[in-house]
Amino acid sequence: MLVIEDKKVVVLQAADHTAALNAIPSSKLARENLLLVPHKLDETVVLRNLGYNVPSPILHYYNWPGRFKPMSHQRDTSAFLTMHKKCIVLNDMGTGKTQASLWAADYLMSVGAVKRVLIISPLSTLNSTWGDAIFSSLYNRTYSVLHGTSEKRKKLMRDGADFCIVNHDGFEIIAAEAAGMFDLIIVDEAAALRNPSTDRYKALRRYMDTNTNCRLWLMTGTPTPNEPTDAWALAKLVNSPTLNKTYSGFRDEVMMKLGKWKMVPRPSSPETVAQVLQPSIRFDLKDCVDLPEVTYQTRTVSLSPEQTKAYKAMTKHLVHEAETGAITAANEAVKTQKLVQIACGVAYDETGAPIELDCSPRVSELMDCIEQVGGKCIVFVPLTGVLEMLKKKLAQKYKVAIVNGAVSLNERSAIFREFQDGQDIEILLAHPATMAHGLTLTSAKAIIWYGPITSNEQYTQANARTERIGKKHSTSVIHIAATDLERRMFTRLENKQKLQGILLDILGDK
Q1: Is residue 319 part of a domain?
Q2: Own/partner long-range contacts of 363-368 (Cβ < 8 Å, ≥24 apart)
Q3: How far apart are the C-alpha atoms of 156 and 174, rounded to whole Å?
Q4: What pLDDT sits at residue 460?
């Protein structure tokens, strides 16, 4: 097989080209065993279906816009997507599948195969992940985040942006009116659709059944976060050619009874799941040797009503202090922490005793991040008053250990050893000040910052816990932020900039 790029032609050699000649009228025989076929999208799909190993045209004719050039696995992922109308991307978190899917979508738009794209993703990533990626790389494309009231979302959708971005539950609101508007739907963190009885799943299923020509790309690094049965709904959405059972039939194939009431996965369930999650592509972090050492992302969450009230009151108090000169370079970090404490779920009474605030949006996002990582995580929490609360909530699902100033050195060593080499600790909740220099915890797939800190040194050293000599894969660092102050703090920490003056800048805008 030979691709002649300047002619946009692929040359195929075989004893018999009858099937290709019949299927592609524009193909021509150059000699008895040489076939010339236009190297275009539809022709390539047909040739691949006939068994010819022809590369996607995106690999030869696309300019890959943006600041960064695609890594090898991203090019392969984009090529895979262009060749499948319905499929699943199972690449690990931190491998750049967001950008790979955007490049693939942009290419399909450039050749007229797609006009508009709808992206369905978690609420925390609408702007910070998808919006930023479109803005920074697809310079000639427009996007709109569909958020707010029902009418506002529908109006934004009708405005005609190339990409519309909506959260999983928000899709139900626009689904009926969206009919026929989009040629491609990309679902990020598609494991959110794993339960076929939910309204969000049913809404997408109805949409795809009605809009039969619409492409559907599902993306998740953890397709079965709870049970092997989670795979059924995803396979059904992409019309997996190997899924030939009802949900109950599939459940019986991958699960078995243990006693009268309990069901556990069958030993063969991983192979069965892999067979039905097709067509799909997967790259593990360890396979992506050209990734940067660290990839960063920020998840945006909301404050609860209780937090909002406390945050506004504290901000008003700090604005007054700033106007009277009570906030100085010497005490600014302490004042900043007061706002961070409220955002993380803690306030303090007149005696200095901690009072827990409702921070359910933030905790829910933390749980989602851990599930999406699909492996051991270090969660850095800048406030000791929050650690126990988080342990109670996380321990309902995961094996959790805490490391803070109250844990002795011997206890810490035992916890670190078990986290690194054992199976009894999945989530390590730690205050960043307790993570000593030289400590290596390379078993962690990701680091999650529940809130920002004011020390560049601690931030850098804490993130370095997953580094090692000869390391062959990237570390994902995830920031959770609910306020402009937190987002600015994380940006400065990531870029190793001083945090001095950040609070006064924020208060000066009030």
Answers
A1: no
A2: 363/390, 363/393, 364/301, 365/122, 365/124, 365/299, 365/301, 365/480, 366/390, 366/394, 366/448, 366/450, 366/480, 367/393, 367/394, 367/397, 368/122, 368/124, 368/189
A3: 10
A4: 87
Other beta carbons less than 10 A from residue 60's beta carbon: 14
Query: Do 46 and 79 belong to one domain?
Result: no
Do 382 and 426 reside in the same domain of the chain?
yes
Are the beta carbons of 10 and 48 closer than 8 angstroms? no
Residue 286 has pLDDT above 50, yes or no: yes
Tell me the residue ranges of DSSP E strands in 69-210: 86-89, 117-121, 143-145, 163-167, 184-188
Q: What is the pLDDT of residues 127-182, one digit of tens each?
A: 888 999 999 999 899 999 999 999 999 999 999 999 999 999 999 999 999 999 99
Tokens describing residue 388: 């126990």
Q: Which tens digit of pLDDT belongs to each residue from 72-120?
A: 999 999 999 999 999 999 998 888 999 999 999 999 999 999 999 999 9
Residues 99 and 244 in one domain: yes
Instruction: Give the position of tokens 């670190």.
Output: 416
User: How many angstroms separate the CA atoms of 20 and 145, rounded?
Assistant: 43
Query: What letters, b where the CB count within 10 A reaches 16 and e where it falls short, cover 194-214?
Result: beeebebbebbeebbeebeeb
Q: Please indicate, yes or no, whether residues 95 and 151 belong to a single structural domain of this protein.
A: yes
Note the pLDDT of residue 94. Answer: 84
Q: Which residue has the higher pLDDT, 449 or 334?
A: 449
Q: CA angle, 428 as apex, 427 and 434 as ends, to 5°? A: 170
225-244 pLDDT, tens digit per residue, is 989 999 999 999 999 999 99
Query: What is the pLDDT at residue 131?
Result: 93
Tokens of 272: 């069965």
Q: By three-state DSSP, how is residue 199 classified?
A: helix
The model's pTM is 0.86
Q: How many structural domains compose the chain? A: 3
Contacts of 98 (CB under 8 A, 6+ apart): 129, 130, 133, 188, 219
282 lies in a domain? yes
User: Which H or E element spans position 347?
Assistant: strand 346-348
Decide if 161 contacts 137 (C-beta within 8 A).
no
Q: Write the CATH number for 488.
A: 3.40.50.300
Query: Is residue 495 a contact partner of residue 459, using CB atoms and an 8 Å limit?
Result: no
Residue 75 belongs to some domain of the structure = yes
Residue 146 belongs to what domain range? 71-287
